[in-house]
Amino acid sequence: MNEPAASTPPGVARAQPLMSIGEVLGQLRAEFPDVTISKLRFLESEGLVEPQRTASGYRKYSWDDVARLRFVLTAQRDQYLPLRVIREQLAQWDASADGPTPSRPTLVAVGPGGEVPGRPAADPPVDSAQVRVGRVDLVARSGIDESTLGELERLGILVSDPPGWYDGDALIIARAVAGLAAYGLEPRHLRGYRTAADREVGLFAQLVAPLARQSDPAARARAAETARELVALSQQLHAALVRVGLRSTLGR
Questions:
Q1: Closest C-alpha to 64, from 101, 94, 22, 33
Q2: SS (HEC) of 209-242
Q3: Quick check: 75 pLDDT over 70?
């Protein structure tokens, strides 16, 4: 991994301006639209960040805390890493504060506006569930044609919601289908993916539903994190099983 953009010597963090949890939320929202105060409290309860406390018990975050939160949220969003793995990486970073190591994760200091020194500003990512892509745009951006889109919908692999509009995950699915089509796979070959996904949804729903039904925001945040980790583990399992299955074909 790359080295942190800046390292704060011991004792310096407490001299930094401190922010309330609401101010931290404002810093992170542009890049992570789905982050909430409950999410920040959840990450604290999991030991991933330790804000200071005032005498009255209010949380106070430094810029180092914000950088740490940004690393956690980025690792979840871009790499689908479970909290256990992220916690281990942060522990390695903490343990190697006196010197760089190859496994040290990137913790980047940010400015008051969320900018990263020396790095051009990028358009903030958007939650895939909030994306709305029209039918014509989906075809143009994914590389599939109208007939393939119709077949995917007929098979239940792609669903428009509301009718005629697709979310970010639908675009990901369509692009994956286009990539597989380049190797000769047709929509009819992909029915098993839909069936397997539905089975996983049924299994995982049993695990997260009890938490998701609770009125406690912390419990709902834990349900979302559990779902995220289950999806990441499922992807790892599927990829490993396919690799193992192909070894005999590849002569390995």
A1: 94
A2: HHHHCCCCHHHHHHHHHHHHHHHHHHHHHHHHHH
A3: yes
Poorest-pLDDT segment among 5-19, 70-84, 104-118, 220-234? 104-118
The answer to whether position 105 is within a domain reads no
Domain check: are 178 and 212 in the same one?
no
Out of 25-34, 60-69, 72-81, the most confident range is 60-69
d(CA 112, CA 89): 26
Question: What are the tens digits of pLDDT across the range 194-226?
Answer: 999 999 999 999 999 998 888 888 788 888 888
Task: Categorize the per-residue pLDDT at 154 as very low, low, confident or very high, splitting at 50, 70 and 90.
Answer: very high
Q: How many domains does the chain have?
A: 3
Q: Maximum Cα–Cα distance for the chain, whole Å? A: 66
Same domain, 175 and 219: no
113 has pLDDT over 50: no
Q: Which domain range does residue 56 map to?
A: 13-95
Q: How far apart are CA 64 and CA 90, in angstroms?
A: 13
CATH of the domain at 149: 1.10.1660.10
